[in-house]
Amino acid sequence: TKVETPDDPMIEELEEAIAEAIAEADDELMEKFFAGEEFTEEERFRGFEEGVAAGIIAPVYCGDSVTLRGIEMLLHEFKKIFPSAEEVASEVATDADGKEVKLTCTEDEPLAAYVFKTVADPFVGKLSYVKVVSGVLTSTSAVTNSRTGNPERLGKLVLMHGKNQENVETVGAGDICAITKLADAETGDTLCDPKRVVSCAKTEFPYACYRMAMYPKGKTDDSKIAGALAKIMEEDATVAYENNAETKQQILAGLGEQHLDVVCSKLKAKFGVELGLEKPRVPYRETIRKKVKVQGKHKKQSGGHGQYGDVWIEFEPTESEEMVFEEAVFGGSVPRNFFPAVEKGLREACKVGMLAGYPMVGVLGRLVDGSYHPVDSNDMSFQMAARLAYKAGIPQAGPAILEPIGALKVIVPDDHTGDIIGDVNKRRGRVLGMNPVEGEDGYSEVEAEVPMSEMHDFTTSLRSSTQGRGSFTFVFDHYEELRDEGLKQAVIEEAKQWMTEEKE
């Protein structure tokens, strides 16, 4: 409101700027402003309220936190100028049929409360923070979880004051509280009146792009790690976990190096689980480049029935992502009932490549000839013969290492695209294109294909080069032959080393 002020040119300029901002919020006030007429107190408040609601005006207030001077004026302005929750806090939800339902932020509406945060505490238990979008929430309210469709039993309702909790009986529309011991509710769930089951829009969390292999530092059993991680992931939706059976590592993913350090600190402080982090292994593959024909013969005599299996197999490259088996035997040199045994022997053998021990893909094994013994031949003998043929033939067929290639999409400010393209090239990547981002002026999306082995620290590099303004997604796309001999030898040596460690 206008008050008596000393004659000061700066104050006059500020008053003029305020009057102009108020006028922009309303056509009627704009006409009065151009006419040179002063606004009444009611018109000032009306203009402020409309301007703040529209985002045209951003009021700045002065105060003193020590003497609390200016607090009463701030609260008065809040009530007088700022729009109420009923006016601006309404949300659009969806019902079971996918139809839109408008939720008005008033206590007269049926209950709808959104779970926006979950805290897992080993002593206090699970705390679910909720915002009451509409209606009134009480500790005795009958509520349904719209995600599961099941009723939820509510614990105590508490208002959080730092670490202190204040028990309350009711929480009205627009307020925030925490609920203790909600069994099935997760972050992003909507708790609602059973008579009106609706789902509020879920928060979209960033992609967990920084991956590290974790290992226990102490004598911690796996069940304790899994349980603690489950609670952390319930609390932080940007944390991901997987057990990679191929590399035999447990992978912990987050938004960056600092994020995973915080996760590890929480695990130690809250649950007594101490983890170490290391660079994850890359799931390479092996293949062949030439066609060969080899014999695999297994013959063993040790009293009584012996073992005899004899096969001739052609190995050649194929486009398939796994081993393909064919048979082209003429004249009954190998009985048909032994074909499955030959195939099984080849498939088992292809699980371990001849260069570095990675799975073999893109191989066609064709059984073309062989021989058998009417007494000593059996399934096991032909499985062994197939494995011997594999061990003899693959080293002659031009074995090669295949490395996984990922599809990279990076969104960065236009003035940083050159830095990103240079970084991608350093990582042996191929830039496929660059396009402007719709709805975000000044940003471009760079698309590229990059070997997964080179992307371990890309998150840190991107954050550093763009001051945290860049984002990216990176997912596996396909395999390509690793042609660099130096890198190829490094991969082989590394694989031999960790396989030796596994045996120990």
Explain this structure.
The chain has 504 residues and is of the alpha+beta class. Helices cover 29% and strands 32% of the residues. The protein is built from 12 helices and 26 strands. The strands form 6 sheets. The protein has an 8-stranded antiparallel β-sheet with strand order 7-6-12-3-4-11-8-9. The chain is elongated, with a radius of gyration of 34 Å. The mean pLDDT is 87.
Strands side by side in the biggest sheet = 7-6-12-3-4-11-8-9
What percent of the residues sit in helical stretches (DSSP H or I)? 25-40%
The secondary structure category is: alpha+beta
Low-pLDDT segments:
none
Characteristic key phrases:
504 residues, alpha+beta, 8-stranded antiparallel sheet, 32% strand, elongated
Write a brief caption for the model.
With 504 residues, the chain is an alpha+beta fold. It contains 12 helices and 26 strands. β1 (91-95) and β2 form a beta hairpin.
Break the fold down into its secondary structure elements and pairings.
Layout: H1 9-24, H2 27-34, H3 41-54, H4 71-81, H5 85-88, E1 91-95, E2 100-103, E3 112-121, E4 125-134, E5 136-138, E6 143-145, E7 151-152, E8 157-161, E9 164-168, E10 170-172, E11 176-180, E12 190-192, E13 198-199, E14 210-216, H6 222-235, E15 240-244, E16 249-254, H7 257-271, E17 275-278, E18 285-287, E19 292-300, E20 307-317, E21 324-327, H8 339-349, E22 363-371, H9 379-393, E23 400-413, H10 417-426, E24 430-436, E25 443-451, H11 458-466, E26 471-481, H12 485-503
Parallel strand pairs: 21-22
Antiparallel strand pairs: 1-2, 1-13, 3-4, 3-12, 4-11, 5-10, 6-7, 6-12, 8-9, 8-11, 14-16, 14-17, 15-16, 18-23, 19-20, 20-22, 23-25, 23-26, 24-25
